[in-house]
């Protein structure tokens, strides 16, 4: 940051840099708050996208939130140190991580963990006993065969719930699922179907556990595409979502958002021209953009990102065609088409919309935060585990 | 790190973690030192792969080095602060970065910059004049149409060299090229041809500049595949390479190294089983492995990485099939084949060899360093720009 009193201008930012349009982010936050507010559930925002206490404060300011979701214990520790006391660690836990979880619990955090296997539950119970803590756990439910979890109608669900309920080192807090399959839903109807399957599968799992005489208070679902799909959430107590704060080209490709709603971009400087090929080279390579190619399998392949002018307006069919570590090669999307390079002098700046906001943000240690395209501050984000 | 006196064991490392086999790394460093030593050129190691002063010290210990290559000014500042005084910043420079370059020059660094365009050269000369420094610059030569640079036989080369030589704010230090196209060379013969093209193109550019009456001292070439190809380097003064310190699956896929020579891996813990699919889930997702899929276009697609036992021995055709942010899905390479999951209990550890060492290492803030599979320390790496 500048050491003068006046704020930095965009032109003064050392590139490549991660730029956050706070005005747009607040509109995205309001959109989700409205969507969840209508459902009667609470929002448990996932902080894995932004990993920023400042962004989380803006999420909370819109109301309707209850606790946070994290993807690492490092996030749990950081956000707890900054005032978050109700934390769901939404990745399967293993015994080697229980000592850290126990430290958070003993410090007063309401930390909930996730299991989907009886051997796993027994192993973490033993570790919890050694640490003299009772672990609140949720059972992960698999509603779409996407990744982890137990099927809502399986016998294993009741076996695991019974095991947890009868172990004094564990407390069954509820059930949770993530409709990761919704990232393949490219129509509103398909997203609504995925959302209904997500909600009904998780509610069904909770009902079966309760029918077995075991308390199951929390029913937690969520993904950005399903959370915005306006499904019937009767029986669902909370919804988790994260990427909606920024949105990205993958979400735009699914129809969940417009490119103009994307609040995150990478500011880059033109460092070279290749006149024969009609392409230009910037200082934003994969180190700044990430290697994520999430739009490669969508109807419109955005390369390594969609190129905007320095104020953030998309230039049309101009994309980052290829990346090296610190070089991004920008050209026309249409094969063989050439850019008019005099529109992009060496030293001029561009902004690049990311395929996947979580991946691009992870390449940076902080956000340069804009309001009305003026830099109002620099917000740190954390990494690691 | 543990606060006890004894070193950590692998089982005590919180996962996911970046693990560096220092014994293997030293063998890789010795291999390159021998290859370059025979050529008569000096090695200017690229630090962008490891971004670690400790790794650089091991590179220097093998001898034959002269200066370093960096991909960001942040690397230049960090390594200068730790004793490197001869630094080539091998990415095209723009006026907005000259103030930082000037600070390094005024502090005593022998920092050399790269240009490939007359407008660019004029613009940085103006910025250098404002900072009251003379900028040593090299002209980037394009030997294979890969990315940046000027063709060795072009008229533009002599125009640019003349412009630089006649500008009091610039000093022409030499010519440099990077045979990035060699990453597509999958036979030893193709790599040798790429290496000869790289050397002869850069030497030819230097000869043409000298024939125009302009001094051109340094002739700098390099990439890991070409540096190990044993081309005739007559006229070349220095060779740049970086990824050879660690090697990776992309290099193995090209035949430049064996998988057993890869010194870098990600330590992961099994966090779940999906018995129906015969796959297991670990806590090393793309946040720990990167989104790099560099082997996707090679003869053997390694997914997001090749899976090893905890001691680092490859398990055969077991790969990371898919990644989410903090979940890695591990299964058999052959479609439809299922793993015997009882070989991989929940809580057990695995190691994953990376597609692209630069990208995987960039996801981590430090290395857990092993000698004979015992942790001897934790080495920091830097990021950012």
Topology diagram in text:
The structure is a homodimer of 385-residue chains.
Chain A: E1 17-21, H1 22-39, E2 42-43, H2 53-61, E3 68-70, H3 73-81, E4 86-92, H4 98-106, E5 110-115, H5 118-131, E6 135-141, H6 155-166, E7 170-177, H7 188-211, E8 218-221, H8 224-227, E9 238-239, H9 249-254, E10 264-274, E11 279-282, H10 286-289, E12 306-308, E13 314-323, E14 328-332, E15 349-353, H11 357-361, E16 366-371, E17 374-380
Parallel strand pairs in A: 1-16, 2-9, 3-4, 4-5, 5-6, 6-7, 7-8, 8-9
Antiparallel strand pairs in A: 1-10, 10-11, 10-15, 11-14, 12-13, 12-15, 13-14, 16-17
Quaternary structure annotation: homodimer
> How much helical structure, as a percent, in the residues of chain A?
25-40%
* Neighbour order of strands in the largest sheet of chain A: 2-9-8-7-6-5-4-3
What structural category arises from helix and sheet content of chain A? Answer: alpha/beta
The mean pLDDT of chain A is 95
The chain pair with the largest interface is: A-B, 58 and 59 residues
Order of helices and strands of chain A: EHEHEHEHEHEHEHEHEHEEHEEEEHEE
Q: Measured on Cα atoms, how large is the radius of gyration of chain A?
A: 22 Å
Low-confidence stretches of chain A: none
Largest sheet of chain A: 8 strands, parallel
Terminal Cα span of chain A: 27 Å
Give the total of beta strands of chain A. Answer: 17
Number of helices of chain A: 11
**Which overall shape of chain A is indicated by the principal axes computed on the Cα atoms?**
elongated
Strand content of chain A: 15-25%
